[in-house]
Task: structure prediction
Amino acid sequence: MADETTPVAVAPAPTSSPAVAKSAAPAKPKVEAPAYREFPTIPALQPDAMTGSNPFVAAAAHNEAIGFPGALLDGWEQKAVAKMGELLGKYRSLRVYMDACVHCGACTDKCHYFIGTGDPKNMPVARQDLMRSVYRRYYTLPGKLFPKLVGARDMTKDVLDDWFRYYNQCSECRRCSVFCPYGIDTAEVTMAAKEIMHTVGHGHKYVNEIIGKVHKIGNNLGLPGPALENTLEGLEEDVLEDTGAAVKYPLDMQGAEVLLVTPSADFFAEPHVDSLIGYGKVFHAAGISWTLSSKASEAGNFGMFIGNYEQMQKIAMRVREAALELGVKRIVVGECGHAWRVAYAFWNTLTGIGAGAGVGKPDPFAIQLQKQLDPNYKQPSHICEVTWDLIQAGRLKFDKAANDHRIVTFHDSCNVARGSRMGDYAGGQFDIPRNIIRAVANHYVDMSEATTREKTFCCGGGGGLLTDELLDLRVKGALPRMEALKQVADQHGVNFMATICAICKAQFTKVLPYYGFKMSMVGGVHQLVSTAIVLNNEQ
Amino acid sequence: MNLVFALLFYAATLILVGGVAYRIYEYARVPAPLKIPTTPAPTTTGGVVFRMFREVLFFESLFKSNLWIWALGWLFHVGLALVLLRHVRYFTEPVNFIIAFIQPFGMYAGFAMAAGLAGLWARRFLVERIRYISTPSDHLMLALLLGIAFTGLAMKFLMHTDVVAVKTFFLGLMVFEIHPLPAHPGLYLHLGMVALLMIVFPLSKLLHAPGVFFSPTRNQVDNPRETRHLAPWAAQLDSKN
Result:
């Protein structure tokens, strides 16, 4: 057991050691990447290492726009405790997880934020205990009688500050839930904590601002319809120029077969847009009519990040409405991790996008939509499922050599890996993207198996943390993924990390330079597809 | 003393059975509104049963997580299970042949149980991370279990007690008769601690035992696209939209 307690000596910085941000503005907190560790042992505890991480509290306008109180309410302590009671009665996960933890410690070294920061409150069990201590105080007999004995605490401002700080250091990636003997999922606890904080008027600015934009404009980035149209026309011109093929990127096309719902970052951010170009080429090459929707111009659903069922449903409902209005037969989701979790695992529940509404009790709400959707396809489908099906059916052709300048690896995005599936069998979400990459590129290498598939490490920016004020946390949280990438980069010359998540792409673009990599090293799976696909006009 | 222990065990049994039944009722009553199995997850009910079976009997997730904790934890739990089975002979007459068969194994399982507990406790002192998350109650729980194991082993190997009388006492309790319990300090300690454990069970982290069966990340079938999964409180929101 000695190895577990050995503190990690700070390794002498190798030549490729990550550099400290030089351009950070003086007022901002220091952003510092940890040094690569020679041996990735478990870090020694550094209590309070991240107490300086202060997410911005949402302004009144942002809170009120999405139905929460503008600022911390009077008597918020009782209201928070009461909300906790309500959630304990609505979510079996929370109810069971508050009781079941035995403090065995299996999760303590599994969180990327703990590995990157050493702050003990970033150990999943300690993060859960921030809430469990309050639960014990108000909802268990031993906590009421002997608070010290069982580690129970009153709900105070200090506790709330700790919640705000450390529940905003959890990307809800569920890696801890893979390793817990009871399947305790810290994401469920984080979501409940965020919902409680919102209910008493203490929301996080970044997430609330974005949810407001989705409702007001239709997408997280706040791109209005005309701007979208303009962007898509520009893409058509670019692709025509590059390939000579008249690939269409339709918007609000009535009667299209497929409605594609994709993260709004795909419309203009780099490298995201290259994947959007790829989706269009796939549909073009397969001769499938498709459309984007200005109403549902966002696959992302930040309602999940704040654990609020009503918000999540309201955001998802846009997709249902767009599908009904456009009369599409299939709904396909672009490269976005948490969006795919919401779409795959929650859409059927929230909006009826799925199947099975006619089985058992009649379910008029869902039947209306499910009658319209084509039962021959999985509803919704992931764009990777669509592409892989077409590849297997021989309907796409590739010039694999076009990707020969790339040595590719694949980063499993946490929400896809541990919160969803693709294809017909458990684990399809790991194989299908890799199968596609192997079908379109000649050089593929997997990263260490301790960091892939269901054991994948979060990019460090998920869960509603992709904001500048948390950059230091994001850079540190990326450490385990960067170490695994460094290994394949050094040993196999990997120069491209493919992923299927808009947040991963944005996060890596930002943090790769801190670890001595080029930001252009990250990109989408459909970016690779786009490079290699042979369009009809070229045959 | 006979009366004290008789009443204590009636109370402890009531609290254990009633308390755990109430917890199970609570866990079963609270809905899981969303599909949240930790994937890759089984796509059929049979698959979920198999997953739970591996989880409960072999601590599969813990095995993937940390070999030390798995080895010590499994040693303790299997030891405890055998010891408990061995003790069934105090409550049944005649003794089932399976219970008779495991008597010698159960005897040594007591050592395994104690060794596992000692190892788990050592971790709470030696491993910095586990030390950080340990509360006084975590230590007391281990102390209580170790106390039960030591007094039990002591009565088997060091200072025998009249087990026939103990059996008469417990068989008597089951038909509401109070027979004399041997006046033996080891026995008093052993039984007192066992009763305490039964009482704290439904109020403590020992609820992980029923809890694991209700964990949505483990017990849900991964089929959200094929069937609509709807909690009663969530179904009410459909009509509003």
